[in-house]
Amino acid sequence: xxxxxxxxxxxxxxxxxxxxxxxxxxxxxxxxxxxxxxxxxxxxxxxxxxxxxxxxxxxxxxxxxxxxxxxxxxxxxxxxxxxxxxxxxxxxxxxxxxxxxxxxxxxxxxxxxxxxxxxxxxxxxxxxxxxxxxxxxxxxxxxxxxxxxxxxxxxxxxxxxxxxxxxxxxxxxxxxxxxxxxxxxxxxxxxxxxxxxxxxxxxxxxxxxxxxxxxxxxxxxxxxxxxxxxxxxxxxxx
Length: 238
Description:
The protein is α/β, with parallel strands linked by helices. It has three domains: 1-32; 38-134; 154-236, no CATH class. 50% of the residues lie in helices and 20% in strands. It has five helices and seven strands, in the order H-E-E-E-E-E-E-E-H-H-H-H. The chain has helices at 2-29, 137-171, 173-199, 202-205, 213-236, and strands at 38-45, 56-59, 62-73, 79-87, 97-102, 109-114, 131-132. Strand 5 and strand 6 form a beta hairpin. The longest helix has 35 residues, at 137-171. The N and C termini lie far apart (138 Å).
């Protein structure tokens, strides 16, 4: 009888140890903390994108608390107030800002707090910290649709302007041809002048001297004669 009681006691102790180990494992995996102390602050949003109670709260990417409560505040407008529980030792500046963000593209929603400036005071129990509403998917789709419509209208306007330019070019083709012909003539005259100055630089010194009509005709004939002679020389060259 004594031996049987000893075996039962050992079995009971073994079961108790297994239960305690299992409880410790659950607390460890679930990240549960007993007898936690801290303080709570508040933050208000117009849209929370599905944040739930006990969602993580992070300060610059570090876990510092959780969403303790979610309240709907009715007034001039409907506000969603989140009560954020912060661990002891975590100090938030009053000008910090709370954001609703996501772990990955389709992950869990949580609160990210951007640290404030060093000149601001630390927040205390019950203080209200600033917040920034998350962007709604519907708003993004609406904005993208509007931008697409603006781009389409811009493309139509550009097409109209291009058509008007083409019509203007066709209607004014003779004028444009004359302009290009004048440009070509001016270019030829300038080339002749530059060649004349190159081979007869002394004529630049006589620029201010008035010439008679006969002198101009004679100078023109001399230039033509020189050009013809130069052309014959190039043709006769081997």
